[in-house]
Amino acid sequence: ETGVTQTPRHLVMGMTNKKSLKCEQHLGHNAMYWYKQSAKKPLELMFVYNFKEQTENNSVPSRFSPECPNSSHLFLHLHTLQPEDSALYLCASSQEGGRVGSNQPQHFGDGTRLSIL
Amino acid sequence: GENVEQHPSTLSVQEGDSAVIKCTYSDSASNYFPWYKQELGKRPQLIIDIRSNVGEKKDQRIAVTLNKTAKHFSLHITETQPEDSAVYFCAASNDYKLSFGAGTTVTVRA
């Protein structure tokens, strides 16, 4: 399945670096999400975009900066990260977000495995 | 906010036996309950979901039950096979977002 594509698959960066994660969906969906997945913990929702507008920022530190130029693309810009930010970052999409989309299936990408040195 | 608890955290079953994973949620307004399967190094994939107006749903060897009064839902896998080995996540939807359980690592022994 190539509905949601994330690049890169793996990223190693120092704490002072700036990098970006990219997500692209080919499903015609209007909502896109960033999640953080750490070992033995529930998936943590970070950001939600619905029709290109950010509708949720789940108290995420400002060193993570999302960007959604259109309904098919989502970026996560990273700057001055901490070792505890090492995790798998998953992108997902659904037909719609918000209250209407709250009971719609979300389709995930393969994730970016991020390691902070 | 919504709090979803999932048990057990690990489950080992003999091939051919059944596996049951249970989740509880805190917000009675939650109305959508998907289950995801994540194989090692792969993306979470939706395997079955249920909405609050339904008590049970089945798809081949997989079934999900929902008890709204008790605020818990369960995943049942019958006739387990080695390819069922994975991490399974439950989730509950409350208003705008999904809240996930911590996951259950299922190992099917040949």
Describe this structure in words.
- By secondary structure, chain A is mainly β.
- Chain A contains one helix and eleven strands; from the N terminus they run βββββββββαββ.
- In chain A, the strands form two sheets. In chain A, strands 2, 4, 5, 6, 9, 10 and 11 form a seven-stranded mixed beta sheet that branches. Chain A has a four-stranded antiparallel beta sheet with strand order 1-3-8-7, with no helix packed on it.
- The N and C termini of chain A lie far apart (32 Å).
- With 110 residues, chain B is mainly β.
- Chain B contains no helices and eleven strands.
- In chain B, the strands form two sheets. In chain B, strands 2, 4, 5, 9, 10 and 11 form a six-stranded mixed beta sheet that branches.
- In chain B, strand 7 and strand 8 form a beta hairpin.
- The N and C termini of chain B lie far apart (41 Å).
- The model of chain B has no long low-confidence stretch (mean pLDDT 94).
- Classes of the chains: A mainly beta (117), B mainly beta (110).
- At the A-B interface, helix 1 and strand 10 of A face strand 4, strand 5, strand 9 and strand 10 of B.
